[in-house]
Amino acid sequence: MTSPSTVTVLGTGIMGFAMARNLARAGLPVRAWNRSRDKAEPLAEHGVTVVDTPAEAVTGADVVVTMLYDGPAARDVMRAAAPALRPGTLWAQSTTAGLDGTAVLAEFAREHGLVLVDAPVLGTRRPAEEGTLTVLAAGPEETRDTLAPVFDAIGSRTVWVGDDATGGAATRLKLVINSWVLAVTHGTAEALALADGLGVDPARFLDAVAGGPLDMGYLRAKAGLLRDGALTPPSFATTTAEKDARLIVAAGEAAGVRLDVAAAGAERFRRAIEQGHGDEDMAASYFASFTK
User: Fold this and answer.
1) pTM above 0.90?
2) Residue 67 — φ and ψ, nearest 5°?
3) Over the chain (292 residues), what is each successive 10-residue block's mean pLDDT?
4) Considering Cα of 148, then 152, then 155, then 157, what sign does the dihedral take?
């Protein structure tokens, strides 16, 4: 019987922290690094070894998971880890990096002899904490048995969409899905803002669509956060949502697809951030409807 793979998690923010904890709970040996060590330190209580540098974190690792802010952040952290990376190490790249960012990371993997798996995840804080994320994955078929216990620990479902990570097949699907998620978020925020502006009780709006084709769980979730004033801690921060929106717009432009709604949504997020809502849940798009 082979011993469990040693897994390194680089980046322990909202998503990475929960992922590292669930990996340890599944019985896998886990090391974790975060730029601000204090955010990673509580993982020690769950059996995770918290270290000071990316290089220390990846030493001897069988699988490296990156869950960082964006492509440049993932590239910089992996560069710092490079002296300790072994050729042949599996790299599950879960950062939402966009198409250009994924291409840069694929080149890094090639230069260092790493086996790259494009592995973004669907879900926010609560699914991450519950280990019920959906993992979108593209990478060599021979990596699947090794990665199965890793992906099973962090998610309830793994969707393999290709056997070559370099084309970013999983990232492409993630961008399409995120475009829908952000559109629904803005739609909810604007509907509630309009209701407030017109003196309509938001409860009447929600009651009117209840159970019909216009109703959905995501509408209820985001409307609930706004109505309850529960935007912190965020499930998905406004700053991250703006970054993802701009990656979606850039991907569309590269493909010759004009995404007016996504572009307008990125601007709404920017205004909300400017108003001081960057660290709140992305439902804070609501505040971009008002000048004060």
Assistant:
1) yes
2) -135, 80
3) 81 97 98 97 98 98 98 98 97 98 98 98 96 98 97 98 96 98 98 98 98 97 98 97 98 98 98 98 98 80
4) positive
